[in-house]
Specification:
The chain has 118 residues and is an all-alpha fold. The chain has helices spanning 5-12, 16-24, 31-41, 85-95, 100-113.
Length: 118
Amino acid sequence: MGMSQERLGESLGLTFQQVQKYERGVNRVGASRLYDLSRVLDVPISFFFDDMPDPRAGGVIAGVAGFAEKPEGYGAPADDPLTKRETLELVRAYYRITEPAVRKRVFELIKSMGPIET
């Protein structure tokens, strides 16, 4: 995400060593810390679960009460591409292209690869 462990730690009130322990899985990440991380990194909490199976499709936690469904109107749909980590990474990479002409060509290339809009 382009942020050092030290800077992330400072933003969370932690040392970079504590951040390293979270990153390596030595320390568990609780719900409140996950919320703090999402705010500091400016991503939705769902960003951290992009690779998780969809419980409605018979995934790991299917059938566990309260986990299979969200209340109506809560959050973005599970298949919303704007909530995916890949989208965020793509947008950040796109804006790291400093030359406007190159960025425009990349934009046009990507548009040309998708279906034709009518």
